[in-house]
Amino acid sequence: MSSVAFKSILGFVQLLVFLGVVLFAPAWTIDYWQAWVYLSVFAGASALITAYLWKHDPNLLKRRLNAGPAAEKEKSQKRIQILAFIAFLGEMILPSIDHRFAWSHISFLITIAGDLLVVLGFFTVLLVFKENTFTSATIEIDPGQRVVWTGPYAIVRHPMYAGALILLFGTPIALGSWWGILMFLPMVFVLVLRILDEEKFLRLRLPGYTDYCRRVKFRLAPWIW
Description:
Blueprint: H1 3-24, H2 33-56, H3 58-65, H4 75-101, H5 108-131, H6 159-174, H7 184-205, H8 209-215
Helix pairs in contact: 1-2, 1-3, 1-4, 2-3, 2-5, 4-7, 5-6, 6-7
């Protein structure tokens, strides 16, 4: 087995174990069907995307494996990644606590709608991966990297983050928690910080990126921002 394949499988298993712990431990029960469905959706979508990259773009898969605060080269991005991790933890833990104490009452159909938003978020990310082989998990410039103007990049400058926000908004709903949506707000704030810092980096180091910003006006959502 290649090192990329081993790291992909190991990372996937570690992610599922981590999600399982943060979803079920605060709830103090495994009788939490919303979390089981969410975990299945998350695992299935992640596995499909990993399999796609494994077959069609192994170099991108390799770049995506190098993620997290420790992998970032820019100090500002290290701090942003730490904040993002904390906010993501909150999006898992608060709904789990909510389930334990039954603060929220969300219908079955709305819960499933949340799962569909998660699927839509993953699908958006897949479209980004298909369009741009340089979508590293860290802020960096790879040899031969160019500005991508096509596909979802013709609509907004950061379609992967847009997909992530769809996924993150759907997460607390899929987990049956209205209160969990509160943790979506700091995640939006952290993503805005990351985007502004990333654009500053790319304007300085990626030829043509400033012209791209003039051509595509919106960062995350058309006619909003």
